[in-house]
Write a structure and sequence with these properties.
The protein is an alpha/beta fold and 174 residues long. It is built from 5 helices and 7 strands, in the order βαβββαβαββαα. Helices cover 33% and strands 22% of the residues. The strands form 3 sheets. It has a 3-stranded parallel sheet, with no helix packed on it. Strands 1-2 form a two-stranded parallel ribbon. A two-stranded antiparallel ribbon has the order 3-4.
Length: 174
């Protein structure tokens, strides 16, 4: 069963749970005091002409970071009557929730329990180079080039450097 673990304000979490549960998605959240980020995309026809992000940094204090890691570990453990997780996807949207230190801790508790780990980032503030030891990385070409500071390298060169720097197994540049 798909399971989402994130940090959200209580009210937003309940709304998200109400919308996703009927779709078969289990929702778990570490409570935050930060308002839910909003991303607006303005289209003309099918072309995006502007994006507006209304967000505050989603920073967790040490207690809530521990709660996030504990929840990930608990959820990834095989449960009675449920199949173990076949995979986990770690998505860093660069809002502060997943700092490099939190990512390191998160991946270290997931790796022994989940056979396939995939990761992605969004935007310039995502911690792409902190996604160590994953089976699949899925950044855009621009995100990979910016993280590695390789603006003139060939696409295969960027992919190999990303795998080398993260000890990743595979990369899918989009």
């Amino acid at each position: 069963r798909p399971t989402l673990l994130t940090g959200l304000p209580d009210l937003a979490c309940e709304e998200l749970r109400r919308r996703l549960t009927p779709e078969g998605i289990e929702v778990h959240s570490v409570p935050t005091d930060t308002p839910m980020p909003e991303k607006h995309r303005f289209l003309v026809g099918s072309q995006k002409v502007m994006k507006l992000n209304q967000l505050e940094p989603f920073v967790l204090d040490a207690h809530r970071q521990d709660a996030l890691i504990d929840a990930a570990s608990r959820l990834a453990r095989p449960r009675a009557g449920a199949a173990p997780f076949a995979a986990a996807i770690v998505a860093d949207f660069g809002n502060g929730l997943l700092t490099p230190a939190v990512l390191s801790r998160l991946l270290s508790v997931l790796r022994p329990q989940v056979p396939f780990l995939s990761g992605d980032v969004s935007g310039r503030r995502g911690s792409l180079l902190s996604l160590h030891g994953l089976d699949l990385l899925c950044p855009s070409e621009v995100e990979a080039r910016e993280a590695l500071h390789l603006y003139d390298e060939s696409i295969p060169g960027v992919a190999w450097e990303l795998l080398s720097r993260t000890s990743g197994a595979q990369v899918l540049l989009t």
